[in-house]
Amino acid sequence: MSDILFWVYLVNAVLLINHEIDSAYWKEWDLFRLPGGITGFLLIHIPVLFFVLYGLVLVFQQSFTGLIFSLILSLSGIFAFTAHMYFIRKGRDEFKTTISLFILISTLIVSLVQAYLTISLILK
């Protein structure tokens, strides 16, 4: 199951990184009222992307810390979907394109699978 988790983590990381690229297009810092504009947004993502990729290494090494990173990444994907659906239902136009919705829905599905696999391995 650890081997499967590695590939699911990788797919989810790719989806979430693509979502963040999409987020830059939609100026997500305005949506969440983050200071610093594009500069602040990009600076925040330097450590975020480091930890996402470092988590993949830890999952590959089958360490317990990797499972914690995996759980955090899966919860991040669930949060991304939920938060953006909230804004869409509030009438915001961001993230309503077909590709944006595809990425968000795919992220939710993969995140739920990842959370299940991760929790199963933690409880094993």
Please explain how this structure is put together.
This protein is mainly alpha-helical and 124 residues long. It has one domain (2-123). It has helices at residues 2-25, 28-31, 37-60, 64-89, 98-123. α1 packs parallel to α4 (64-89), α1 (2-25) runs antiparallel to α5 and α3 (37-60) runs antiparallel to α4. The protein is globular. The N and C termini lie close together (11 Å).
Gist?
By secondary structure, this protein is mostly helical. The chain is built from 5 helices and no strands.
| End-to-end separation | 11 Å
Order of helices and strands: HHHHH
Number of helices: 5
Mean pLDDT: 97
Which stretches of 5+ consecutive residues score pLDDT under 50? none
Labels describing this entry:
about 120 residues; transmembrane; transmembrane helix; globular; DUF6713 family protein; mainly alpha; DUF6713
Q: Can you lay out the helices and strands and say which pair or pack?
A:
Blueprint: H1 2-25, H2 28-31, H3 37-60, H4 64-89, H5 98-123
